Amino acid sequence: MTPVAALLDVTDEEEMIRVLLIEDDEDDYLLTKALVSARENATIKLDWVDSYDLALETIDAHKHDVYLVDYRLGHHTGIDLIQEAFRRGCRAPMILLTGQDDLTVDQSALELGAADYLVKGRIDAQLLGRSIRYALRQASVLAEVAQKENKYRSLFERSIDAIFVASNELRFQDANSSVERLLGYSRDELRILNPARLFSDLNQLRNLRFNVREHGQIKDFETTLIHRTGRKRICLISVWAVEDLIGRPEWYQGIVRDITDEKKAQQDLILAEKLTMTGKIARSIAHEVRNPLTNLSLALEQLKDELDTDNEYVTMFTDIIGRNVDRIGQLITEMLNSSKPRDLDRKKQDFNQVVRETLQLVSDRIKLKRMRLETSFLEDDCQALIDRDQVKTALLNILVNAVEAMQEGKGILCVKTNCTEDKRVYVEVTDNGGGISETDRQRLFDPFFTGKSGGMGLGLTATQNIINSHKGSIEVESQVGLGTTFRLYFPK
């Protein structure tokens, strides 16, 4: 018998539920048609096809709301049909009809996307109608959820902010592309990554976990995260709990904001203000001191002509006065040079060679103190647009401080050059000296701050001034008792 459509006598075609029965047994079709013809199923319109191939052809036309699929379809199964239909883009609900209870088949059908399953011989008109309407309603809800999920997934993926989803242990479960760019890991790598590897200070991770568990959320928690390449970024992390139906934290979602550039801009502004103040002080001192100092120097020369130069005590005291007059003049010059803007003569040149030449200037000190020098220079292109003399001055200040921080006969000075992903070169200077406390580290570049007796505290101020003039940056890491590392970055 040729398959036909079971027409129902209804006046409102728009309310009809169009159902396609895929069944190769005509008797089963007639039984199903009788169930659909019951009064309670008056809004259901049943069509029938009797083969696997014809079913796929009809499904591709997308003219039906629900599909009733027999499990046995010749050489194929109803599960095969459901899989192929979904592969072709059909999202209408499909109900599997089985000849007997088979939990394995039923479970497989549901896992592969079947909306429901019914056992032939146990179906009545009411059950069939309810299953069809339920499947249609469920499909509508799922479609709405999918639409919302796609909308929010799009917002999630396209957000400039780094957004992530995490477990109770704050391990990544999902992350958008901004997180991948910020940390340098793919989302698959983040899912298996121990979060401890991302924090420069493990105590910060412990504090973050404690606050989130204690209060259910934390806002703008400032910490330093480590990029896959080792580059450090200062970030603000906000995390809040998503609770289950009884109010227990089920998972967490959060946002990470990179504020490294903002922090650097603030520090540059503070430094500029400090340098401006230092310059004012230096100019004031130069004006108030240099004139009387010049008079003192001239008077000393005049006095030498009047005194007995054969007297060794007279000569000794006049020499002391002369050396200190010169020293005061030199200090004033250093103050002026440390604070005024640098006029740079920038040229493309070999950064490695500049570092080597600077190391030669401290080689005698290293040998005299019986220290070991270890170097590692980047073999690839290491050209940089720099002022050779200025960079040597800046690096020399760092090297001298490193040598003076280490014990004689035990010091190890490590110097290496490298490039970053954002097209910068840098030199890293590491010593195994006494280290610097966090309080002192925060003040290292302040004018007149020094930990050395007799020092003016202007060397590092001058160094940072030179680096800032190159549009570069400087990083300092130190642990008391273990040593200190300086990194000086310059644009290529």
From TrEMBL:
Catalysed reaction equations from the record: ATP + protein L-histidine = ADP + protein N-phospho-L-histidine
Known EC number: 2.7.13.3
Sequence intervals crossing the membrane: none
Any Pfam family the entry gives: HATPase_c
Ranges for domain Response regulatory: 18-135
Gene3D superfamilies per the UniProt record, alphabetical: 1.10.287.130, 3.40.50.2300, Histidine kinase-like ATPase, C-terminal domain (3.30.565.10), PAS domain (3.30.450.20)
Coiled coil: none
Annotated PAC domain residues: 219-271
SMART domains named among the record's database cross-references: HATPase_c, HisKA, PAS, REC
Protein name: histidine kinase
Organism annotation: Spirosoma linguale (strain ATCC 33905 / DSM 74 / LMG 10896 / Claus 1)
